[in-house]
Design brief:
The radius of gyration is 30 Å and the shape is globular. Mean pLDDT is 86; it is low at 1-40, 125-130 and 164-168. The protein has 28 helices and 4 strands. The longest helix has 34 residues, at 43-76. The protein has a domain at 377-612: Alpha Horseshoe (Serine Threonine Protein Phosphatase 5, Tetratricopeptide repeat), CATH 1.25.40. With 617 residues, it is mainly alpha-helical. The chain has a two-stranded antiparallel sheet with strand order 1-2. α10 (225-240) packs parallel to α12 (288-302) and α18 runs antiparallel to α19.
Length: 617
């Protein structure tokens, strides 16, 4: 379809509508001129007529959006890619819910069927951990229809129970698959701000003490401290009366109060098995009564008599229990009543006489982590620097220098680059330099340190798309204070984009430029989006959704992979939602220019959702 012809037709229709509206307003204007003091031509009346015309146009856009989504749903039922079919139908159903809940419910069911097929296929080839199409559908269903979401969760549970192997028992880290799906769904709702609905799904599993349930409560506490503390209180009471709980259960429970999002447990040899999240929380500011209840519960579990060795079914054994008490002892001494402190010291000394010298003299790093004052960067570096002098091979030295670089990066210390420069293996050094420079640049952008970020962008090891992101983010930061320089940075980003060889990365880079232009020079956004469509049509498999940058280091000593932070500027949703509010018809035509099913579907849904979410008068 010829775009210019459509644009002329669109303008003609709008001009005709404007003339009609003017025609309706002329008699009122004449009457105002001939009648002194008449209110019919007052400014408020003219504003009301204008609002009515805007409402009519908005209602028409909503009808068009609904019609587009219904047509798209019909197309989606024939998509060969079951995962895309599931996603598309679920998102369409969620968008149409306010207009037609019955049709949306039917689409949700079709979406679930496609997700089951997609997950079955994925689990056969990649394993159960990669099966997440149903999880994506569940999140959208739960926002709209709790009953239907519960039905789907029950299907998950039934499918798990019918597998050849019995359902897994609740462990220290995660719940059985079906229950974990329920909690994951609740956490997604919680992060989106829907606390009440999140609790409706989470409450049936919050009696279990695992890393995942405590993590949920920690996130909940940021949004609703009373709800979180009441559920934690219930957890403590159940733990104290449960004969199957052991020292590791207490260690996990301690995390909620003292080391949120850092979880440390010990095995039967006394070695630590730990997990912690990138974003940590400060210790919880709870009531003295709740803190006392924790120490009473911890004492009730930790002071239990030791079972005979041949009947000890705990996860810790004696060595692990000794290490848990060793870790928690400073907390008892700081916060617990004296009688509990005395009892715990006596138990610690009793276990100290039973464990081996190896356990007794073990490294205390994990026993102290999060409880003892954190070491400075210099204190952490010195043992590794000493180790550099003792190793025998350059490969071992390279591994230590990279570890030092990562340590400095975690502290946002530019010395990380110096450590990388000491790596002897040239290929390993290039990979490490890219990893460190990108990490420092991301931190610089977050801190709005534009000059630091741009200096890092000039590094020779960064990829073109990494430079595009740094340049576009810097341009956005400078838009309000130095528009000319901001535009110059976007021109540099465009030059970097032309150097990108990967067909998948080119449209993502152009999307980042379009997002920045919407803030700096909106008139150029449409032109750039046409380039996005053109680049996407040359990139097989482009969906417009993958907003992340994977990095890999493959050295003689290690293989390290990471997908860096979610980057919305690389996705279509935000920018297509924005242009839909400026020119719906043009945005729709642009979306139809995508040849790939996934890209066209995602762009169309973003446009329609934006229109349907507009407030109504």
């Amino acid at each position: 379809m010829d775009y210019s012809l459509n644009l002329l037709q669109c303008l003609s229709h709008r001009l005709l509508l404007a003339c009609v509206l003017m025609g309706f307003s002329l008699p009122a204007s004449a009457q105002t001129t001939g009648t002194a003091g008449s209110k019919s031509g007052s400014p408020s009346k003219r504003v009301n007529r204008s609002k009515t015309a805007a409402d009519i146009l908005a209602a028409e856009r909503r009808k068009q959006a609904q019609s587009l989504l219904i047509t798209l749903a019909s197309e989606a039922r024939s998509f060969r890619d079951q995962r895309l079919r599931a996603r598309a139908l679920a998102r369409i159903a969620e968008a149409l819910w306010e207009a037609d809940s019955e049709q949306s419910r039917s689409l949700f069911v079709k979406s679930w069927e496609a997700a089951e097929t997609a997950d079955a296929s994925t689990s056969d080839t990649l394993g159960e951990a990669s099966s997440n199409a149903r999880k994506e559908v569940l999140v959208l269903v739960a926002k709209r229809d709790r009953t239907l979401a519960e039905d789907f969760l029950q299907k998950l549970k039934a499918q798990e129970e019918t597998k050849s192997k019995p359902p897994s028992e609740t462990g220290l880290w995660d719940l059985p698959t079906a229950l974990q799906q329920r909690l994951d769904l609740a956490e997604t709702l919680l992060r989106a701000g829907d606390v009440q609905r999140a609790l409706e799904f989470a409450d049936p599993v919050l009696g279990n003490v695992t890393m995942s349930t405590l993590d949920f409560l920690t996130i909940l506490r940021e949004k609703d401290p009373v709800a979180a503390d009441s559920r934690y209180t219930r957890m403590l009471r159940q733990t104290g009366s449960n004969p199957l709980t052991d020292a590791n259960t207490v260690s996990l429970l301690a995390s909620y109060l003292f080391t949120p999002r850092m979880y440390v447990v010990f095995n039967r040899e006394g070695a630590a098995d730990a997990s912690w999240m990138r974003t940590t929380f400060p210790p919880a500011n709870v009531t003295a009564q709740l803190r006392l209840l924790f120490f009473q519960t911890a004492s009730a579990v930790l002071l239990r008599p030791l079972p005979p060795p041949d009947q000890d079914n705990t996860t810790t054994g004696v060595p692990g229990k000794f290490m848990v008490i060793r870790r928690l002892m400073p907390l008892f001494e700081q916060h617990a009543p004296d009688p509990l402190i005395d009892n715990m010291r006596a138990q610690y000394e009793a276990l100290n006489s039973l464990v081996s010298n190896r356990v007794r003299e073990a490294e205390t790093e994990w026993a102290d982590r999060g409880i003892a004052p954190e070491k400075t960067l210099t204190e952490q570096e010195q043992p590794l620097l000493d180790q550099v002098e003792r190793v025998n091979t350059s490969d071992e030295r390279d591994a230590i220098y990279f570890k030092l670089a990562l340590m400095s990066l975690s502290k946002d210390d530019q010395n990380a680059r110096n450590y990388v420069s000491k790596i002897a293996d040239s290929e390993f050094r290039k990979q490490a330099q890219r990893w460190i420079d990108w990490g420092l640049a991301v931190r610089a952008i977050k801190k709005k340190s534009v000059e630091t970020a741009l200096e890092l962008a000039r590094g020779i090891e960064l990829s073109h798309i990494q430079r595009v992101w740094i340049l576009t983010q810097s341009a956005k930061l400078l838009a309000a204070v130095d528009r000319e320089r901001s535009l110059s940075l976007l021109d540099q980003a465009a030059s970097e984009t032309r150097r990108i060889e990967s067909s998948q990365e080119r449209p993502r880079a152009l999307l980042a430029i379009a997002n920045a232009l919407s803030l700096v020079e909106p008139a150029r956004v449409w032109e750039t989006l046409f380039e996005v469509v053109k680049a996407a049509n040359s990139a097989e498999g482009f969906t417009g959704e993958d907003g992340s940058l994977p990095l890999t280091i493959n050295s003689k000593q290690q293989v390290l992979s990471k997908r860096f932070d979610y980057i919305p500027e690389f996705e279509m949703k935000g920018i297509f939602s924005e242009i839909a509010n400026k020119d719906f018809d043009r945005a729709v035509q642009l979306a139809h220019g995508f040849q790939g099913e996934a890209a066209r579907t995602n762009a169309t849904i973003a446009i329609c959702q934006s229109v349907l979410k507009e407030p109504r008068s």
